[in-house]
């Protein structure tokens, strides 16, 4: 049994190349930290579906093959347990608006868990309102308003919640130049009827007695300072952090109303008075500390306000210029859960309306937050009616919201930390849901006390511990079974891993492990590398038509092992000769060639045979015509030699299709046959192959010679001669007639020309000058006669001239 295990372990290497993420994980912890993977903690497993070889102990957890027994699979599941689930309550001291209150969550790393819980805005939720007022002289009017309206404010708030407390504080500025005049007289009495200046004073801690509030506001005296910005930040900080003095209740909504008509000093302004130490965000026990520490910064205020669930409402006196409003609007954007509004000097109720409006805004808007660190990712969502990202608006008192927190552990917790606590709560409220999160990153089988843990195991050559099914080798040992000793020289080992004639260790396809090659597992499941030097594989054989060994054999170390009936280096050859015999024939390649690899190779002699069955040649028109003629003659026309004698068996192999015309068939090599039969008639037929069947087609009639008709012939000849003669005669007659007419017309024309034309001898030269002989007796007037002139002899005229 153990030798078998050993063989399993030796044959396959751990250092392999795998495809999926799971398979590359070498130990249980790494494996289960991938959310989709499961680990098999048995040494014999896992198996391939065919039971063949162990590949890796880590697989996809939804792998349905029997690769590991279910009991041995390590794949922790996320789960939740409710530890405390009290009903919603509007109890004065312990109101519960979130349900359940305590939960324990076990989370697989990377997995997203949807935690569902509820929020209900309960009636009479406790409210603390602390009013801080700028008591510089210019605010007197507003102080008087507040004193007047104090009882109305309390009443209005009581209408909302019976559980309401009110407090009052005021501020001027740091008592130092240049903020406040330090002139002794001015210090005592900065303005007529004014109190000495101070930084911040708590006049009244939170109380439900609003008459006290009214009394305190009335009694508070205004004071005076020098510069225009005031030290309000110091006051806000102190009002938030001095929890005992102000008496903020933990389980209450905290409203801090900050009322002023001036700008504020910011961190760094303290330098003007020589105060350089930054603010420490602590409650001062002594007034001198205001001169020790600078004004707090905006981010400090933001931090303490969020930390202490304080909603700040900036109630700013309306001014004709915009800059004051703008400063506070910007400030409220930078402080979480803060709001901003303007007081109108003409409307005394404006302070109540401002508080009421902002209070409604605060109560109706619910947003959940958590204090999770980067390791735990938490996102909130809700099914509320008017959601804006991450927030529910218009939440009414008594309405129950279903909240879903999607929790994902991004990292394992630091070593030694079992679990972490995360608090989920609505912004600016105290009560929430405490979640204890345990991130499942460890395998129980890794523990030395686990039953599967074997120290110095046989499987590990007694040189290591068997942990979660794999060997953890002691120092200096390695290999899958800790079979290798790193202290022994390895040059001899490596020699044993190199094949003769090669210079690569394990042919480049494996690792040398103490003198033995451990071949790589190929990236694909159907590829295998093997052999003593990993020189073999089952995927590099010849391919035919894209198929390894034509798909008709196994590839073994580069050679195709063909199935029966096939041969060739890629199993591409069929051994049977059926493909070489023409259908309806019994000779291989028509006796003009040999059958090689299932196909005819024709003899290349003087006839140059060709065709699939070597049935064609240049000098022999369609080879099988002779062979088929008698059967065709008998079957198509019921004539020929087989009419008298019984046809041989091979005639039954086909039945000629008889048709009127023998059309060509595209893509088919149709062989045409014209055969002269005994009666000097021509028989037309053709044949071709459809797969392995012979198809013969014959013309529905033979073409026989017709005897000539002598009489008709003679008559035809005579008629045609006669006709030809007549035609020629007519033609001749027409010709001669036309000719005669033309000649006559010509003669007539010439006759006309003779009569009219007065021609002149071309040699004649007309006289240039004409003189009349004066002696010539002539009629009374001298007028040369044209007729005489033209007919007179030139010689005489010339002579006359000379004279
Ligand atoms: C198994 O899980 C993987 C990764 O989550 C997924 O891609 C695959 O489709 C799952 N297969 C089955 C059969 O569920
Ligand atoms: C709690 O709310 C109920 C109605 O929801 C009310 O009747 C009861 O008086 C409230 N209790 C307190 C202590 O406010
Ligand atoms: C308180 O509520 C009652 C009834 O809703 C109303 O009549 C009264 O005016 C309210 N008081 C104040 C101060 O708003
Ligand atoms: C979150 O807040 C709770 C309660 O205040 C605290 O116990 C827990 O340690 C805090 N968690 C972190 C991660 O800061
Ligand atoms: C190669 O071997 C593997 C493992 O035995 C097998 O799954 C695969 O089908 C084989 N491939 C071929 C082409 O024979
Ligand atoms: C049938 O066999 C006879 C005798 O062997 C042969 O002469 C004839 O050509 C064959 N006919 C066919 C159609 O093969």
UniProtKB/TrEMBL annotation:
A molecular function (GO) term: metal ion binding
Residues annotated as signal peptide: 1-19
All residue ranges annotated as the Integrin beta subunit cytoplasmic domain in the record: 733-779
Chief location: membrane
Sequence ranges assigned to domain Integrin beta subunit VWA in this UniProt record: 27-443
SMART domains: INB, Integrin_b_cyt, Integrin_B_tail
Domain Integrin beta subunit tail: start-end pairs: 625-709
Residue ranges, annotated region (Disordered): 774-803
Subcellular location: Cell membrane
Keyword field contains Cell membrane: yes
One Pfam family per UniProt: I-EGF_1
Transmembrane segments: 710-732
Biased composition (Basic and acidic residues): 794-803
An example Gene Ontology biological process: heterophilic cell-cell adhesion via plasma membrane cell adhesion molecules
Biased composition (Polar residues): 774-793
A cellular component term, taken from the record's GO annotations: focal adhesion
Cystine crosslinks: 28-37, 31-68, 191-194, 242-283, 384-392, 412-673, 441-445, 468-506, 473-482, 512-517, 514-549, 519-534, 536-541, 555-560, 557-589, 562-571, 573-580, 595-600, 602-614, 631-704
Coiled coil (UniProt feature): none
Topological category with respect to the lipid bilayer: Single-pass type I membrane protein
Keywords, ordered alphabetically: Calcium, Cell adhesion, Cell membrane, Disulfide bond, EGF-like domain, Glycoprotein, Integrin, Magnesium, Membrane, Metal-binding, Repeat, Signal, Transmembrane, Transmembrane helix
Family: Belongs to the integrin beta chain family.
Record-linked PANTHER family: INTEGRIN BETA SUBUNIT, INTEGRIN BETA-PS
Name this protein carries in UniProt: Integrin beta
Organism of origin: Acanthoscelides obtectus
């Amino acid at each position: 049994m153990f030798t078998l295990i050993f063989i399993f372990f030796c044959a396959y290497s751990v250092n392999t190349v795998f495809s999926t993420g799971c398979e590359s994980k070498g130990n249980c912890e790494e494996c289960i930290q991938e959310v989709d993977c499961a680990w098999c903690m048995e040494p014999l497993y896992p198996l391939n579906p065919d039971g063949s070889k162990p590949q890796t102990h880590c697989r996809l957890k939804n792998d349905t093959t029997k690769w590991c027994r279910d009991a041995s699979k390590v794949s922790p599941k996320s789960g939740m347990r409710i530890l405390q689930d009290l009903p919603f309550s509007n109890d004065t001291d312990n109101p519960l608006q979130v349900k359940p209150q305590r939960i324990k969550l076990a989370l697989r790393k990377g997995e997203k868990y949807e935690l569902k819980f509820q929020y209900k805005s309960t009636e009479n939720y406790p409210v603390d309102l602390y009013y801080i007022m700028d008591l510089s002289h210019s605010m007197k009017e507003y102080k008087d308003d507040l004193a007047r309206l104090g009882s109305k404010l309390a009443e209005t708030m009581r209408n909302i919640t019976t559980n309401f407390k009110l407090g009052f504080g005021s501020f001027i500025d740091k008592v130092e130049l240049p903020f406040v005049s330090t002139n002794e007289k001015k210090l005592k009495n900065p303005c007529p009827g004014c109190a000495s200046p101070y930084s911040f004073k708590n006049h009244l801690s939170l109380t439900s007695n609003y008459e006290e509030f009214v009394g305190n506001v009335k009694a508070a005296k205004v004071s005076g300072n020098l510069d225009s910005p005031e030290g309000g930040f110091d006051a806000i900080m102190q009002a938030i952090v001095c929890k005992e003095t102000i008496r903020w209740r933990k389980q209450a909504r905290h409203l801090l109303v900050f009322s002023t008509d001036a700008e504020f000093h910011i961190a760094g302004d303290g330098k003007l008075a020589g105060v350089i130490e930054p603010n420490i965000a602590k409650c001062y026990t002594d007034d001198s500390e205001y001169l020790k520490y600078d004004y707090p910064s905006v981010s400090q205020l933001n931090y303490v306000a969020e930390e202490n669930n304080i909603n700040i409402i900036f109630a700013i006196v309306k001014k004709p210029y915009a800059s004051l409003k703008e400063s506070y609007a910007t400030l409220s954007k930078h402080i979480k859960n803060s709001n901003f509004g303007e007081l109108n000097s003409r409307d005394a109720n404006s302070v109540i309306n401002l508080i009421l409006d902002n209070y409604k805004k605060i109560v109706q808007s619910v947003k959940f937050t958590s204090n999770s660190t980067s390791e735990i990712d938490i996102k909130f969502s809700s099914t509320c009616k008017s959601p804006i990202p991450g927030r529910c608006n218009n939440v009414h008192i008594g309405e129950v919201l279903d909240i879903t927190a999607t929790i994902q552990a991004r990292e394992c917790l630091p070593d030694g930390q079992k679990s972490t606590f995360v608090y989920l709560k609505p912004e600016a409220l105290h009560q929430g849901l405490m979640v204890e999160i345990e991130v499942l990153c460890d395998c129980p089988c890794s523990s030395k006390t686990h039953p599967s843990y074997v120290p110095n195991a046989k499987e590990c050559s007694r040189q290591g511990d068997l942990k979660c099914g794999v060997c953890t080798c002691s120092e200096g040992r390695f290999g899958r079974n800790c079979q290798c000793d790193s202290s022994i020289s390895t040059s001899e080992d490596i020699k044993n891993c190199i094949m003769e004639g090669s210079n690569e260790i394990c042919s480049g396809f494996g690792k040398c492990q103490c003198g033995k090659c451990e071949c790589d597992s190929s990236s694909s499941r159907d590829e295998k590398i093997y052999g003593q030097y990993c020189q073999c594989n089952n995927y590099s054989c010849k391919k035919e038509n894209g198929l390894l060994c034509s798909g008709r054999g196994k590839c073994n170390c580069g050679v195709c092992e063909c199935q029966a009936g096939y041969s060739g280096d890629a199993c591409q050859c069929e051994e049977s000769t059926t493909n070489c015999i023409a259908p309806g024939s019994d000779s291989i390649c028509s006796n003009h060639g040999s059958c090689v690899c299932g196909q005819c190779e024709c003899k290349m002699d003087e006839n140059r045979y060709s065709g699939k069955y070597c049935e064609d040649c240049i000098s022999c028109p369609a080879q099988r015509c002779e062979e088929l003629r008698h059967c065709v003659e008998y079957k198509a026309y019921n004539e020929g030699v087989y009419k008298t004698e019984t046809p041989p068996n091979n005639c039954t192999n086909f039945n000629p299709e008889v048709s009127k015309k023998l059309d060509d068939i595209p893509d088919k090599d149709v062989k045409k046959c014209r055969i002269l039969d005994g009666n000097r008639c021509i028989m037309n037929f053709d044949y071709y192959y459809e797969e392995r069947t012979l198809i013969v087609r014959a013309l529905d009639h033979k073409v026989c010679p017709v005897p000539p008709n002598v009489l008709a012939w003679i008559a035809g000849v005579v008629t045609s001669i006669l006709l030809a003669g007549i035609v020629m005669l007519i033609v001749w007659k027409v010709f001669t007639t036309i000719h005669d007419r033309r000649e006559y017309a010509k003669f007539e024309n010439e006759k006309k020309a003779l009569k009219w034309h007065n021609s002149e001898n071309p040699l004649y030269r007309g006289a240039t000058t004409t003189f009349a002989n004066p002696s010539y007796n002539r009629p009374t007037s001298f007028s040369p006669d044209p007729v005489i002139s033209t007919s007179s002899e030139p010689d005489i005229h010339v002579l006359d001239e000379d004279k």
